[in-house]
Every structure is written in structure tokens, then in C-alpha cells.
Amino acid sequence: MSLSASKPLYSTLDISGQVALITGASAGIGEACAWRFAEAGAVLVLIGRRTERLATLSAALKEAYPSIVEPHCVTLDVQDVAAIEALPAQLPPAYANVNILVNNAGLALGVAGAADNKMSDVAQMISTNVTGLIAFCSAFLPGMRARGSGHLINIGSIAGHEAYAGGSVYCATKYAVNAFTMAARHDLVGTPIRVTAISPGMVKTDFSVVRFGGDQATADKVYEDIEPLVAADIADNVMYAATRPKHVQIADLIVLATNQAAAKVVARVGPSLGAPSLQ
To answer: What GO molecular function terms would the record report (predicted)?
Structure first.
């Protein structure tokens, strides 16, 4: 068998022109995903709470990739179920047929134990991480099913696979995301719609700053003497899943930093990653 140098050994899916809707797009993993989908020529619908940051991102994307369709930005809190339900009918025609839904928006608030949870924090984590995600699925999966094409990508967490002290509610929400995603895969098994869960471990974004109420010093200690993942790493996993051929479904990806073995098992060995000293 002869191989032609001009023909790739494996053909990936071209997603240029496909509409990708990304929640939590104004920062962190969502913003990194926006850059990767723009690079791939996708048509972007960017969802976030911060209007100015969305506008700045949209302008930067258009400047970097002039040939893309101008991203459509929607200022929306994913806790607002009514706004999510209304969104499909409100999108302009060029953005209405969402092909790829990236449910990325989520947060953790505090590290209270199970006996000490603040109920306002509980409600916000559940409505953001779980209810909002389900609402976006209810809003956009019917259109995918009717068109016979689509991809649901839910950003979960290692906390959805193993619980830990101080994470009772956050872990519960991510277990719910994991279970919902698996159930969705069962529900859609007879369709061309692919369903992917991506579960990151330690990622250095604003996540810990939010968790610790804006305490940057405490947040920094989470990543002290370890090389964590960064948002671009997870965006790369999202892009990998999205660009497999249509008959390939990446069901679950658990992604950890090299020096992280489990949710709360890390080796703080610094930039060397634990390699032996050559001195």
C-alpha cells in the first residue's frame, strides 16, 4: 500500500461555518474555546454576564480572524431560565441553527462542609452549574435533533467523579452534570447528535478567585509549586472532540495536570514536574 504525501492519514471534521454557542465565554475556558472555534472558522454565539468583556473578545477575534462571521454576543446570566428558553427564537438567522453547544458556565462558592453550607451559595451553584446547563440543552437540542446534526459538549469536573471535603455542593452539581450528560447520550443514541463530557482537574483560571470570594492570595496557594492546566488546554480538548469524524463520539475525557493524580492528590514539585535534577 502506497501513501500519498498530499493525503492525510486521518481526516478530521471541518467545522468552519458551523454555529458554536459557548456559555461563560467572557473569561477562562469559555474565552479560550471562543479563540479555538474562531481559528477553525466557526460562527460564534458568545454567552456571558459581562457585556464589555464579550464586546472586547468579539472585537479581538474579528481582528485576529477577519474572515470569520462577526461573533454574536448575548449578555445573559445562565440562572435566568426564561431568558434561555427565549434565546433560540431571538438569535438572528445566521446564528440560529446551533450545531455545537458548549455548556461551560459554572462556579464554586466557598469550601464549607456539608453541615455549614450557606443556602444562598447552594442555590447559586445549583442554578448555574445544573439548571442553566439543562435549560440550554432543552433550548437547543430539539433543533439539532430536527436537523439531524449537532454536538453537545458539557464541561464537567474531576469533582463530578470523586467527592472531597469542602466541596459537598460543588461536587454534587458536577456529579449531576456527569449523570445528565450520560443520560443525554442514552436519549440521543439513535440520532447523529454526539454528546461529550470533559472533566478537567486543576485549571488555573479565575475559578479559585471566585471560590474564595476574590481573595487572590488564597487562590494563588491552590496552584503553588505545581504546574496546573490552563484554559487553552481544556479548549484544545473541546476542539479535539468537536473535530472528530461524525461517526466518532468522544464520550468522556478526564484531564489532569501531570502532577495531579486525583481531585485532592497533587505533588507540589514545581516546574520540573518532578524530573530528577541534572546538576
So the answer is: oxidoreductase activity, acting on the CH-OH group of donors, NAD or NADP as acceptor
Which comes out higher in pLDDT, residue 1 or 159?
159
What are the strands, taking DSSP E only, across 104-210? 151-155, 194-200, 203-204
Residues constituting the chain: 279
> Are residues 109 and 139 in contact, defined by beta-carbon separation less than 8 angstroms?
no
Overall number of domains in the chain:
1
Question: What span, in angstroms and rounded, lies between the C-alpha atoms of 232 and 228?
Answer: 12
On the 0-12 / 13-18 / 19+ scale of CB atoms within 10 A, 171 is buried
**For the chain, counts of helices (H) and of strands (E):** 10, 11
pLDDT for the residue 279: 58
CA atoms of 279 and 275, how far apart (whole Å):
12
Which CATH number characterizes residue 222's domain?
A: 3.40.50.720
Residue 40 lies in a domain: yes
**pTM value?**
0.95
Report yes or no on 8 lying in a domain: no
Between β-strands 194-200 and 265-266, what pairing exists: parallel, antiparallel or unpaired? unpaired
Q: Which residues are catalytic?
A: 170, 174
Cell of 69: 462571521
**pLDDT for res 149:** 97
Instruction: Evaluate whether residue 246 is within a structural domain.
Output: yes
| The predicted structure's pLDDT at residue 5 | 65
In a domain, 86, yes or no: yes
Q: pLDDT > 70: what percent of the chain?
A: 97
Q: How many CB atoms lie within 10 A of CB 10?
A: 6
* Domain membership of residue 84 as a residue range: 19-255
